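Cross-posted from the bioinformatics board.
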Amino acid sequence: MSALVQLVDVSKRYGDAAALHATTLSIECGKTTVLIGPSGCGKSTLMRLIIRLIEPDSGRIDFSGEPINSENIESLRRRIGYVIQEGGLFPHLTAGANVLLMARHVGKSQEEMQKQLLDLCELTRFSGNLLPRYPVELSGGQRQRVSLMRALMLSPELLLLDEPLGALDPLVRASLQKDLKEIFARLGQTVLFVTHDLAEATYFGDEIVLMNEGRVVQIGTATDLRDKPANAFVSEFIHAQRGIATL
Amino acid sequence: MNRIRNPGTQETAESGSQESKQANSRTPFCLVSWLPDFLLIFSCIPFFLIQSSSAADVVIGSKKFTESYVLGEIAKRTLINAGILAEHRQGMGGTIILWQALRGGQIDTYPEYTGTITQEILKRDDAPSLEQIRESLAQFGVGMTEPLGFNNTYALVMRGSDAQRLGVRTISDLRKHPELKIGLTHEFLDRQDGWQPLRERYALPQQNVVGIDHALGYAALANSSIQVKDAYSTDAKVEQNDLVVLEDDLQFFPKYEAVFLFRLSMPANAIAALRPLQGTLDEKRMIRLNAEAERTKNYTKAADLYFNVGARPSGDSGPSYISESFPHKLARWTLRHLQLAGFSLLLSVIFGIPLGIVASRGGPIGHAILGFAGIVQTIPSLALLALLVPVPFFGISARTAIAALFLYGLLPIVRNTSSGLQDIPRSLRESAIALGLSPITRLWEIYLPMASRSILSGIKTSAVINIGPATLGEPILSGLNLNDHATILQGAIPAALLALLVQWFFDLLDRVLIPKGLRL
């Protein structure tokens, strides 16, 4: 099993507050790794460090064995798809234009783009009729599907999802969860998924990384976390979430 | 002919003349050199459209400056007194326009100067006698009266008190006082018959020579920052400021003796009626009439003074400036406003958006840019003009107007560009970065379109600031000289029309430039 992304002693501070203590972590190829933890635990920081929206204070991040730096990051970003909670769609571009934006810039041919677009519509169960619409004319779920299409357009090696379903109502969320899992399986996609919802983590995660206060507390499957908690925080976190689920 | 008594208007009115051509070739960076020509074209069109036959027996024309107006009024009064129905078309334009109108028969007579006739109409560089000039003009079917009496040429002037104290009466006398400070208009400094040859001819020793705007030069004389300046020998300011004209004892300056040119086909009784004017107007008298005209803004009244009639209320001819050519003037003013406002707005956009982009990144440079644009906005327009006018490149010209309007228009665009960009949600900025778009692409395809509404509204504000100056553009161009009569209507109607036009134009622009997705 090879690591697509390898973090070595990566840390990040904001002033006096440590957002991420020195952390070493691998993200395995073809698997879905879920980062979970309470708000402010450093899970989003970790993801933003990988795509270099923020610079690490120390440590090294390798992508496919190559250290990420400011020179190669722009081309590496094209090998990484990124979806955020609000979708991040550009309001002045139609759904279709949002999806094709990057492909157009790397100079893909028109036929290639159209074919890929149709494939993605089918994959994400997004109606092609809606492609000429602007983001404000789409529902939350539709927007996330478009956002996912945009992230997948260049067939990225890594897909980063930062609480992609956080803003959706439960029914839409459930159907998207199902679709997402199918898509990951179909593409054999390497995914890093950030959520604070244990059920979602359990549903997606081949491997769950539980974080708290800027540190990785435990790595394992959902069962590992439940049956072999590394410390009191892990059991507390698991039970708090289960408590709600079993009410 | 370039008796630039009112530099602002004159520049446009006399654009066909030698002088402005020289000016154009002299100035390497002449963004607005096309303005005068453009205006000339447009000011001609209405004129030739209204050339329809007049009810009057004799039509008098005049150029666009005080003295010409006054002479035109005197001629009209003279002809009417002789029982000839006369009409005066005031301020038609510059030499070329008047000359063409005379030859084409749209007018029958107009006041002209011998120097101008020789140099610009006959294009001779010698100094022909009056007889030789008359012979040459006859080939065009044009006659010339004897000189009216005054010579309106360049002159050097001093304060009367200074001249008396130092015993200076002639230009030669200046040789005895090398310490005197001389302030000259930039035009006079540059002219081929200006300062350099004058200094050589008189062997003047003064080292302290500065370039200064004509109107400001009088103020400089008054507070003794200079002691000698150039002027026109019949300039009303000479009398108003208690100045004396130094005698040109070596006859350096060419003669610009005032005469009337007339069509030889003009009725004989009309020609005969003009003759008595010959030799009746010396410099002193003309200065007094010019001063009266500038003081009262009423040329008919000033002309009345010539006939020694008291201040009769201007009856028959009405206020001189609301004349038949009102639509023509209106069109010209509107066009000028549009050009000034449009051109300066364009500059504001070209510089404002990039500055706004830099400012949106914050930091010391961003703060400095916003600070500078803010400070400019707080400078009163008159103070800004006072800063710009003394700069040689600007002076009293359309350039100054454009520069001032440009600076005033900058802040709204810089600020709105900057805030529009800063208002883009962080998540969208990061999405653009995470996609792998290059910085230029992010700016051009994502950030600027998203900020387009804010930027456009800044441009709109800037346009309103620029158009409003009907109140600003006019004072800049012609307000500094007292001669130009911009009526309220001439300023207000174009401004109102332009406001509507701008409104309409920007509504259209909004639809074209703001992406549909942002308007839903």
